[in-house]
Write a structure and sequence with these properties.
Layout (H helix, E strand, L loop, with lengths): L1 H4 L3 H13 L17 H10 L4 H10 L21 H14 L19 H12 L3 E2 L26 E2 L24 H10 L4 H16 L18 H13 L4 H9 L2 H4 L26 H12 L48 H12 L20 H8 L1 H7 L6 H7 L4 H13 L5 H11 L30 H16 L9 H15 L9
Antiparallel strand pairs: 1-2
Length: about 525
C-alpha cells in the first residue's frame, strides 16, 4: 500500500475524478470561450506533489495565474456564462461542502433543506469580489394567470446582491484575527472559511469522497448532496475527518487508513439469493466497474504499449497564437484526452488515432464536454460497451502481438506454455487461471508452440505524422494525408514477424478473449 501510494500514478488516478467534479472543460480551439485551457496540468501537479487539500482548495478558489498556461486561473473560465461566479459557487459548494445549489441558480431550492437563491449569489459575489445584479436569465418568470409553480422566487431580477457568507448553519462564519492577508478580499475569505480547521464539514466531505471512491458507496450518499441522506456511520465519518485535519490535510494519510482496513480488504461478496442487500453495512466493497480512463489505461498497461497518438492540437507547427489554438501535447494517459471537435467537421482536422480512444471512453461515461460538476457518471451497461471493446480499434491494437507488445516479448522468451498462460492472466486479469481455463488455452496454443519463433528481426513501427495544421487544412492534399492516417489507424499495429502467423494469431485470440471478458472491466 505504501509503495502504491508513493507511485506517481496516484496523480493520474485522481485527475480524471476531479476533472469531473470541478467541471474542467478544455478545448483545442477558442481558449477564451468556455475553455479551461491547460488547467488540468495544475490538477496533476497538485496530486503529484501531494498538495495538502486545504492548500489545494485555497489555491483553486484564488483562481490566480494565466488560464492559458496551466494554473488555477483556468478554473475561473470553466462553464463561463452570464454569471460565471455563480457557476463557480455551484461547483465549489458541491465539491467541498456537499451542498447542491443547482436549483438555486434560478429560484429557491424546493428540497426539504432547501437553500435560498440569495445564498448562492452572495457566495458568487464573494468570489467576484463585488456585488452582482441578478440577470433575467437567472430567474423564473411568473406569468399572469398561469399555473403557480411549486418553486419560490425570493430574489427578483435587478436585485443587487452584496458579498456575504450565508452558510452559518453548516460552516462557522467567523475567522480568527490575522488569518487573512487582506481582510477586504472576499475571495480570500471564502477560501479561509471553507478550509478552516473549524469547518468539520469540509474535512468530512473530502474523506467521504475518498471512502466512496474505494468502497463504492459513501458514508453519506450521494457524496455531493448531503441534504438527501444522513451519515450511515457518523462516528467513522467524524474520526476520518479529524484524521485528515490533524495530519495536515494529507489525503494519502486517510487513503492509507482506508486501504489497510478490513472493510476495504475483504473480497467482494455476492449477495445471497433472496437476501436484501444492505450496502451501508460495508460487509465488503461493492462491485465496481473501472472508469473509462482506467479501462483505456489498463488495456495499454497490460499490453505494455504506448498510445502513439497524435499531438492534441490543430496547430502542431505553432503558427497560431495561444489565444487561437491550444496544444495539449501527446497523450500518455487517458485523462490527457480532450474534446476533439474542430467546429468545421472537416477530415483534414480529424485526429483519427486519438478518436479511437475517445470513442471507448465516451461509451463508458467519459464526457468530452464538462460544463457542469459531476461526481457519479452514468454507469448503466449498454449494448455499445461490449461492442466497442470487441470491435474497437483500441482493443485490436492492445491485443495485437506487435514488436512493442509485452505479450510478444513473453512469447519470444523461454517460458513454458503453462507459464506463458499464467503470466498473460496476471497482466490482464490480475489473477492466475483456473485449471479449466489453463486446459482450454493449452489446447489452443500447444500446437506449434515449440517452433513458434521465426528467427526474423523485429520491424520498426513507423507512425505517420501528417503535416496538417489549421494553417493548411483547406488544401485538398491535407484531406488526403489525414485519410491515409485514418487508414493506418484502422489497420492497427503491424504484427511481429518474429512469430509464425498461425501461432501468433491464436495467441492474439487468447489475449483478445481475456481483454473482452466481463471480468476485465471490473475492479479486481
Amino acid at each position: 500500500i505504501d509503495r502504491l501510494l508513493a507511485d506517481p500514478r496516484w496523480a493520474d488516478h485522481w485527475v480524471g475524478y476531479w476533472q469531473d467534479v470541478l467541471a474542467e472543460n478544455p478545448g483545442l480551439l477558442k481558449p477564451t470561450l468556455n475553455n479551461t485551457g491547460p488547467f488540468r496540468w495544475w490538477l496533476h501537479q497538485a496530486f503529484l506533489e501531494n498538495l495538502p487539500m486545504d492548500r489545494f482548495v485555497s489555491d483553486l478558489i484564488s483562481m490566480e495565474g494565466s488560464y492559458l498556461h496551466g494554473s488555477p486561473g483556468g478554473f475561473a473560465v470553466a462553464t463561463e456564462n452570464d454569471v460565471p461566479m455563480a457557476a463557480k459557487a455551484q461547483v465549489l459548494s458541491k465539491a467541498f461542502l456537499g451542498v447542491d445549489l443547482t436549483c438555486s441558480r434560478c429560484h429557491d431550492s424546493p428540497s426539504s433543506r432547501g437553500f435560498k437563491q440569495e445564498q448562492l449569489f452572495t457566495l458568487a459575489a464573494m468570489l467576484k469580489r463585488e456585488a452582482i445584479t441578478l440577470p433575467v436569465t437567472s430567474s423564473v418568470k411568473l406569468g399572469e394567470g398561469g399555473r403557480v409553480p411549486n418553486v419560490k422566487v425570493t430574489l427578483h431580477v435587478g436585485s443587487k446582491v452584496s458579498p456575504s457568507f450565508q452558510f452559518a448553519a453548516l460552516v462557522p462564519s467567523e475567522l480568527p484575527d490575522g488569518i487573512l492577508r487582506d481582510p477586504n478580499d472576499q475571495r480570500e475569505r471564502v477560501a479561509a472559511l471553507i478550509t478552516s480547521p473549524r469547518n468539520e464539514r469540509f474535512a468530512q466531505v473530502l474523506v467521504n469522497r475518498l471512502w466512496s471512491r474505494y468502497l463504492g458507496l459513501g458514508l453519506v450518499d450521494p457524496v455531493d448532496d448531503w441534504s438527501k441522506a444522513k451519515p450511515s456511520h457518523p462516528e467513522m465519518l467524524a474520526w476520518l475527518g479529524r484524521e485528515l485535519v490533524t495530519h495536515d490535510y494529507d489525503l494519502k494519510h486517510v487513503a492509507r487508513l482506508i486501504l489497510n482496513s478490513h472493510a476495504y480488504q475483504r473480497a467482494i461478496m455476492p449477495t445471497p439469493q433472496g437476501v436484501e442487500h444492505h450496502p451501508s453495512l460495508y460487509a465488503s466493497p461493492t462491485r465496481r466497474r473501472m472508469t473509462a480512463e482506467q479501462i483505456v489505461d489498463s488495456l495499454f498497461v497490460a499490453a505494455g504499449k504506448p498510445f502513439d497518438c497524435e499531438m492534441l492540437t490543430f496547430d502542431p507547427e505553432g503558427r497560431q497564437t495561444i489565444k487561437q489554438c491550444l496544444n495539449f501535447g501527446i497523450p500518455r494517459r487517458a485523462w490527457n484526452f480532450v474534446d476533439l471537435a474542430n467546429e468545421r467537421d472537416r477530415p483534414a482536422l480529424s485526429l483519427p488515432i486519438s478518436q479511437t480512444f475517445v470513442d471507448v471512453m465516451m461509451a463508458y461515461g467519459w464526457r468530452n464536454s464538462r460544463t457542469t460538476s459531476l461526481t457519479d457518471r452514468d454507469d448503466m451497461p449498454t449494448a455499445l460497451q461490449p461492442m466497442i471493446l470487441a470491435n474497437g480499434l483500441s482493443h485490436i491494437r492492445a491485443s495485437r502481438l506487435s514488436d512493442d507488445s509485452a505479450f510478444t516479448a513473453m512469447a519470444i522468451g523461454d517460458l513454458q506454455l503453462s507459464q506463458l498462460i499464467e503470466n498473460s492472466f496476471e497482466r490482464i486479469l490480475s489473477r492466475q487461471p483456473t485449471d479449466e481455463e489453463r486446459r482450454l488455452f493449452v489446447e489452443l496454443l500447444d500446437d506449434g508452440f515449440g517452433d513458434r519463433k521465426t528467427g526474423l528481426p523485429p520491424v520498426k513501427k513507423t507512425i505517420s505524422r501528417a503535416g496538417v495544421s489549421w494553417a493548411n487544412h483547406l488544401s485538398p492534399e491535407a484531406t488526403v494525408l489525414k485519410l491515409e492516417l485514418e487508414k493506418q489507424a484502422k489497420a492497427g499495429d503491424p504484427p511481429s514477424p518474429r512469430l509464425k502467423d498461425d501461432w501468433r494469431k491464436r495467441m492474439e485470440d487468447m489475449v483478445w478473449t481475456l481483454m473482452n471478458s466481463p471480468e476485465f472491466v471490473f475492479v479486481p
